[in-house]
Specification:
Blueprint: H1 2-27, H2 34-45, E1 48-55, E2 58-65, E3 68-75, E4 81-89, H3 97-107, E5 111-118, E6 121-128, E7 131-138, E8 144-151, H4 159-162, H5 166-176, E9 180-187, E10 194-200, E11 204-211, E12 217-224
Antiparallel strand pairs: 1-2, 2-3, 3-4, 5-6, 6-7, 7-8, 9-10, 10-11, 11-12
Length: 228
């Protein structure tokens, strides 16, 4: 009876050791091949492998992605990325003002009022109908990053430049009353201002209020000379 027990125990132990051996052997993943490493890296980083070589248990891979070259190191056994370095980036050139004008004209027809380069963006102002369009473009690609419309301001006449001269105002007043000019004062207002001109003649004295832009006599305050 004891011999059977010993035999059964030995068989159980041998089977357990064998099972453990085969589990470890087949459960363990095989190291990545070069082809598998390339597929894995290209899928992971959405790039193109340019070169690969194996050093020990690692693959050293040169990867091209978005106009930049990276050096990637991956462990063949664990599939873990151990290094990722930027090796080289393609230098981009800024668009010229002429190129930007072409992009803007195609995007928003109108009169280009101004173009200014700020860091890596172009700020462009376009006038169209009754609106001013403010655009921000990528200085490398010409892509419109943002746009904002604003109402166009109507140019107001320069009132100061259109105001008649003091001499002209005096002439207008003297057409109504010839005499000596006692005083001239100009009062500025939002609609162009006015002149106050005091004229004294032999028989009368008057103060004329004359519009500073139109020259129209707005009012006359007349005082008759009471002396005989």
């Amino acid at each position: 009876m004891k011999k059977w027990l010993i035999t059964i125990t030995v068989i159980i132990i041998v089977c357990a050791v064998a099972l453990l051996f085969f589990q470890e052997r087949f459960a363990k993943e095989e190291p990545l091949s070069k082809k598998e490493a390339i597929t894995h890296i290209q899928s992971l980083y959405n790039g193109q492998v340019k070169h690969i070589k194996k050093q020990g248990n690692k693959y050293k891979i040169e990867l091209l992605r978005n106009d930049a070259t990276y050096e990637v190191a991956i462990d063949a056994n664990t599939r873990q990325i151990t290094d990722l370095l930027l090796k080289e980036a393609v230098k981009k050139s800024l668009l010229s003002e002429v190129q930007v004008r072409k992009y803007v004209t195609d995007y928003a027809p109108g009169e280009i009022e101004s173009i200014a380069l700020e860091n890596t963006y172009y700020k462009v102002q376009v006038s169209n109908d009754n609106k001013i369009k403010n655009l921000t473009l990528d200085a490398y690609t010409g892509e419109v990053i943002s746009e904002k419309d604003a109402p166009k301001e109507v140019n107001k006449p320069d009132i100061e430049k259109n105001v008649i001269s003091e001499q002209k105002a005096i002439q207008i007043a003297q057409q109504e009353l010839k005499g000596e000019v006692d005083s001239v004062n100009y009062k500025e207002t939002a609609d162009g201002g006015y002149y106050l001109i005091e004229i004294e003649s032999d028989n009368a004295e008057a103060i004329f209020e004359i519009h500073g832009v139109t020259g129209k006599i707005m009012s006359v305050r007349l005082e008759e000379d009471g002396d005989d």
